[in-house]
């Protein structure tokens, strides 16, 4: 079977190429396929920065009452208090995840759980806001 011989040959070729090019930052045991060139790292950072910049503009033209999770949930809370029958008939608990999804996605664009100092989901302000709303809903229903 030639495929088992091919892998060590490729590895040996990459090792020889690194030695000739003077790259000394390779660590044995790590896959060189996962290593990014400085150009690729720069391109990734630029692309990531562009995405983050664009994400800040998403809700630029939206009224503040409709792009803030807390304010949206307060509107639903008011509805529930003033018109409990229509609130219940509208199945709001099933609608809220779809309604809040785009807002939460914007908050999660820069979140990376693989970073050393990442914020736990449960510690994010939007998560606590939804949790408080859910707890208030459960208490009032019981």
Specify the helix fraction band. 55-70%
Shape: elongated
Number of helices: 6
SSE arrangement, N to C: HHHHHH
Strand content: under 5%
Rg from alpha-carbon coordinates: 25 Å
Q: Summarize the biggest pleated sheet.
A: none
Number of strands: 0
Which class of secondary structure composition applies to the elements?
A: mainly alpha
Q: Which consecutive residue ranges, at least 5 long each, have pLDDT under 50?
A: none
Mean pLDDT across all amino acids: 81
Distance between the termini: 67 Å
Biased composition (Basic and acidic residues): 17-30
Main location: nucleus
InterPro entries: GCFC2-like, GCFC_dom
Domain GCF C-terminal: 70-130
Task: Write structural notes for this entry.
It is built from six helices and no strands. It has a domain at 60-141. The relative contact order is 0.07. It has 142 residues and is mainly alpha-helical. The mean pLDDT is 81. The longest helix has 20 residues, at 2-21. It holds the Pfam family GCFC. Residues 17-30 have a biased composition (Basic and acidic residues). This is GCFC2 factor. Its main location: nucleus. Belongs to the GCF family.
